[in-house]
Every structure is written in C-alpha cells, then in structure tokens.
C-alpha cells in the first residue's frame, strides 16, 4: 500500500512542474537582475535535473529490491 502511495505522490509531483522549479536565492537574484530570463530558466532547469536524478536512481533501486523481496520465498 505504501508503495502505491509513493508512486501516486511521484506522479502528482511530476504533473505540477511549477512546484518543482526550485533554485537557490543567490542564483535567482543574480540571473534575474541581468534581464536575460532565458539564462535564468536554463540554470533553474539544470538545478532541478541535478536534484531529481539521484532521487530517481534511488527509487529505481528500491523498486528492484522490493520486487526481489516480494518474489523470494519466506523461510
């Protein structure tokens, strides 16, 4: 049941990209002060990707561990 709740949470988080746009305050202030929002958006997307990839890798690892534990017979 908890696994299904985690999948639903991840799906909802991916459907709300405006909530996922996170960046440090200093980067945001410096990049937006230039008036070039394309560079600020690129840095913002890079930060989000760098933040998300480890979580995705750990989630995949736990998925395979969960499947392995579920398929192994209990002694």
Short description:
This protein is mainly α and 75 residues long. It has helices at 2-15, 17-20, 25-33, 37-71. Keywords: Membrane, Signal, Transmembrane, Transmembrane helix.
Write a structural description.
The chain has 75 residues and is mostly helical. The protein has a domain at 24-75. Helix content is 83%, strand content 0%. The protein contains 4 helices and no strands. Helix 3 packs antiparallel against helix 4 (37-71). The relative contact order is 0.09. The mean pLDDT is 77.
Please state roughly what percent of the residues sit in beta strands, choosing from under 5%, 5-15%, 15-25%, 25-35%, 35-45% or over 45%.
Answer: under 5%
Radius of gyration: 18 Å
Class inferred from helices and paired strands = mainly alpha
What pattern of helices and strands is seen along the backbone?
Answer: HHHH
Low-confidence stretches: none
Largest sheet: none
Percent helix among the residues?
A: over 70%
E-strand count: 0
Distance between the termini: 23 Å
Number of helices: 4
Shape: elongated
């Amino acid at each position: 049941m908890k696994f299904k709740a985690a999948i639903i949470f991840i799906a909802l988080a991916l459907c709300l990209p405006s909530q996922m746009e996170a960046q440090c305050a200093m980067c945001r202030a410096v990049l937006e002060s230039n008036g070039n929002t394309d560079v600020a958006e690129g840095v913002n997307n890079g930060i989000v990707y760098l933040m998300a990839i480890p979580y995705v890798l750990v989630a995949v690892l736990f998925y395979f561990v969960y499947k392995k534990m579920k398929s192994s017979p209990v002694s």
